[in-house]
Amino acid sequence: MEPVTLTTDRLVLRPFRPSDTDAVFAACQDPDIQRWTTVPAPYERAHAEDFTGRICPENWRDDVAYDFAVVTHGDGVLVGAMGLVRLAQLRTPERQAELGYWTAREHRRRGYTGEAARAVIEWAFTRLGVERLEWCCEAGNEGSRAVALGVGFRMEGTDRARIVHHGTRRDAWRGALLPSDWGLPSTTPYLPSEASGASDASGTSGRAPTTPSAV
User: What does the pLDDT read at residue 197?
Assistant: First the structure.
């Protein structure tokens, strides 16, 4: 699809540009980003050049992923990356996508990630017709989980051996957000099971960890 730009009170979410290469390269030197995300490790400048100059434009063009550079209003400082991935079922009856993100170390604990996530979620539900938005991270990534909970995701459980990271299978936490969780309509009717209704009452599943920490 044609790339779009979203705005919030403090942020602009726009497609990545080659001019973002230096900022992406610097941010991805953070050991936490290399530990918890799928970026290459070690992260070389060539990786950033390829990401901003080729991968991101191709992802938008081919509907593989919709990657946003999250920058501050005015000075345009890169705060992080936010995007919709796993789009194979976006235009099927399932109408699903997955939200992914990372935040540069020096910009954490300021609410930027949640602010950007809300903008992408609203766009996904109201413009793209997403009816189930998933979030997934490696089990133990408390910062990512805190952001997901903060914007309304409901934890659905732990998927064993879902993620392969540096040659090792690892468990993953999984959550989902529906338009109805935000008071928005869906085209496809939803009939929850009794078990789902019981879980919704507490907003979390019995298997999910219960003590999030902030990024």
Answer: 60
